Predict the structure.
Amino acid sequence: MNPFALILSSPSGGGKTTLTRLLLERRDDVGYSISCTTRKPRLGETDGVDYHFLTREEFLARRLRGDFAESADVFGNLYGTLRQEVEMVFSSQRHVVMDIDVQGALQFLAAFPESVPVFLLPPSADVLLSRLKSRNTESAEIVRQRLTAARDELRAVVRYDYVVINDDLERAYRQVAAIVDAETVRHSRLPGLEERVEGLISELDRQISSNLTVGRS
């Protein structure tokens, strides 16, 4: 198997984090690349599990060294994906599931062109707003900023290979899981496919020649 990165993008509140967790819980062929951030840990978050929590100075130094496959400034906090984290999951023969915003997704695609980008659409603006407000962790101003960003991110949907409407979590999960299954067996991802096909053709040629010889005797 040639593992690939599955990119899940959506506006804040679009459900990418929830779907990522479901994929990790239910499938043993996917792994997660732990991102870095400069924001403070939220209640219940653990360094090295939820994020690598870095100081702004540490983050900028690593970005300068080229350690990140993608990085972005999101509402005053820096976020980024380490190349080594992605390669570590690939080395275990698992796909990497990434839940990143549009800005990060486009950078990541440049670093890993074989990635599969999937955009999760909220069923309506009202549902999106309701999901954001239900967090109770952000001010009204941050919610307004996130809604403004969501409007801009929606314009990038045409740059994604797949679009899933997240109006029902289980249905959305099944659709994303089906995308992983389909991409796993796509011919360009199968190692040694040409050699395998050529071997089958050669064997069939031998069988055809053998049957022709038997038929003439």
Notes: Residues 5-185 form a domain with the Rossmann fold fold (CATH 3.40.50.300). The first strand starts at residue 5 and ends at 9.
